[in-house]
Write a structure and sequence with these properties.
This protein is an alpha/beta fold. 44% of the residues lie in helices and 16% in strands. It has a single domain, classed as Luciferase-like domain (TIM Barrel). Strands 1-2-3-4-5-6-7-8 form an 8-stranded parallel barrel, surrounded by 9 helices. It starts with a strand and ends with a helix.
């Protein structure tokens, strides 16, 4: 199982210089990917902008959105941005998308909150078509630059509804479970894999999972404050709090549990913006 680390791009008050230093240090290893999260209606740095900047100071580590809200963005521009970052980074982008659950993120969005599922499905179909070199409409030109990875960047889809799991299996290259326990993640991945098989798709269906962590003296108070602020009073907040990793022992147990259920890549997302989190986590995974 590969182990990735997130960027603190949505932690309140994070400094832009720290984000750049964070990316540079992560590139030194032992992590497989650098992830970014997304929040539109409040604080936080835009995930693709952070990854574009990270591409300039990294050479090895993959770059991932885990996850980004798809329907709030123009589909054609999103497809082009992803291709651009993928090309600039030498084919290192993984695009993880979902619809999200915060209605405030959809204020001013091209898709109304109540229609985000249907809009997301249309978006995924269009993005894959554009990455294949087809025009957005008849008579239009291709959207470039040319894909650095065959067929475009790896595409992951998250979510827990039956519609989301079906969508991931039919339209994505893999499924990402955010904030779930290992057992919950396996159950939802299995359902998405069933949709993959039913659609007659071949190859490997990727299984990615993410949990939040914070280590050291600021872990308990600072980490929980971030999670409560980011998710608000919601079922998602409680799920993330229930799986929030606060101690080295909890991190090791999570690594073992997710490896046991067959996760391909496990992303540990920082709940505090302290550079020592990179070293503390690196020491645990070796």
């Amino acid at each position: 199982m590969k182990v990735a680390i997130g960027s603190p791009n949505v932690v309140k008050g994070v400094d832009a210089r720290l984000l750049m230093e964070w990316a540079s240090r992560v590139d030194g290893g032992p992590f497989s990917s650098l992830g970014t999260m997304d929040i539109v209606s409040s604080y936080g740095y835009e995930p693709l902008a952070v990854l574009a900047a990270a591409a300039a100071v990294t050479q090895r580590v993959r770059l991932m959105t885990n996850i980004m809200l798809g329907p709030v963005r123009n589909s054609l521009i999103l497809a082009k941005q992803a291709l651009s970052i993928d090309a600039i980074s030498g084919g290192r982008l993984t695009l993880g998308l979902a619809v999200g659950s915060r209605e405030g993120d959809y204020l001013g969005s091209p898709v109304p909150f109540r229609q985000r599922g249907r809009g997301f499905e249309e978006q995924l179909v269009l993005i894959k078509r554009l990455w294949a070199g087809e025009p957005a409409r008849d008579g239009g030109g291709p959207v470039g630059p040319p894909p650095a990875q065959s067929g475009g960047p790896e595409l992951l889809v998250g979510g827990y509804s039956s519609q989301a799991l079906d969508r991931a299996g039919r339209l994505a290259d893999g499924y990402i479970a955010s904030g779930a326990s290992a057992e919950q993640a396996l159950a939802t991945f299995t359902r998405a894999k069933e949709a993959w098989n039913a659609a007659g798709r071949t190859g490997e269906f990727r299984f990615v999972a993410m949990q939040s962590f914070a280590l050291g003296p600021k872990a308990q108070e600072g980490g929980e404050a971030h999670i409560r602020s980011f998710y608000g009073a919601s079922a998602a907040m409680q799920m993330v709090l229930d799986t929030f990793l606060r101690t080295p022992a909890q991190v090791k147990d999570a690594l073992s549990a997710f490896s046991d259920v067959g996760v391909d890549e496990f992303v540990l997302s920082p709940a505090i913006a302290e550079l020592d989190q990179i070293d503390r986590l690196a020491d645990l995974i070796g």
